[in-house]
Design brief:
Length: 224
């Protein structure tokens, strides 16, 4: 498969990770990889566009537009809580005073509603918070159970990886020892073959020399 990377490391079995220079070499490889990586400006462009319509309100839409335009957040307006008198030019204007009175009555009604809400909260809020806290406790228990289950699965996977790597490492060591033994035997066989070849060459040379001296030896025998 194109681009497939086969990892042949056995970190639970391999040795030598703490030797001098190994960590530096690993960091150098990572640094080289990061130099070749060129992220795009929009690295999420391959993902589908999120649809905010089902949950987006007008307030959220305006806030997203403000964030996109990098505009500062508007300060909370306290104007409606103020009770200013009529301006100096309208001190004798009954209409202006009526507007001020209406504003004060609205403020008074607002404060009355806040007092009612506080009284309702003091009466019923505790039970609501207790129920809410019970729900949160159940959610926490479920999350902790899921976390424990995931940690257990991770531990089992790590133990399995460690066991598999130890077994594979032992097999690799046996194969390596067998390979070294075979290489040594082959080397010994080659050495013996070379010695035999050398010996054969020497014997052939002696034979050739003896054949070259053969007639002279025969003549000497006849003369006697």
């Amino acid at each position: 498969m194109a681009g497939e990377v086969i990892v042949d490391a056995l970190p639970y079995y391999d040795q030598g990770y703490d030797e001098p220079g190994v960590r530096e070499a690993a960091y150098a490889l990572v640094e080289e990889e990061t130099r070749r990586y060129r992220p795009t400006k929009n690295y999420l462009e391959h993902l589908p566009v999120i649809e905010y319509v089902p949950i987006e309100t007008e307030v959220m839409k305006n806030e997203f537009e403000r964030l996109s335009a990098r505009l500062p957040m508007e300060m909370l307006s306290m104007k409606r809580y103020e009770l200013p008198p009529p301006p100096s030019g309208r001190q004798n204007d009954i209409t202006a005073w009526n507007e001020c009175v209406d504003n004060s009555m609205a403020q008074l009604e607002h404060q009355s509603a806040r007092i009612a809400n506080l009284e309702l909260m003091s009466r019923y809020g505790a039970n609501s918070w207790k129920l809410h806290n019970e729900v949160l406790v159940k959610m926490l228990d479920n999350a902790q159970k899921i976390q424990q289950s995931l940690r257990k699965r991770i531990q089992e996977i790590n133990w399995k990886r460690k066991n598999d790597q130890i077994i594979a490492g032992g097999e690799l060591r046996q194969l390596e020892e067998s390979w070294i033994s075979l290489v040594a035997k082959n080397y010994e066989i080659e050495r013996v073959c070379m010695e035999l070849q050398q010996e054969i060459t020497e014997l052939k040379e002696q034979e050739r020399k003896l054949r070259g001296r053969g007639p002279a030896v025969v003549e000497e025998n006849n003369t006697e």
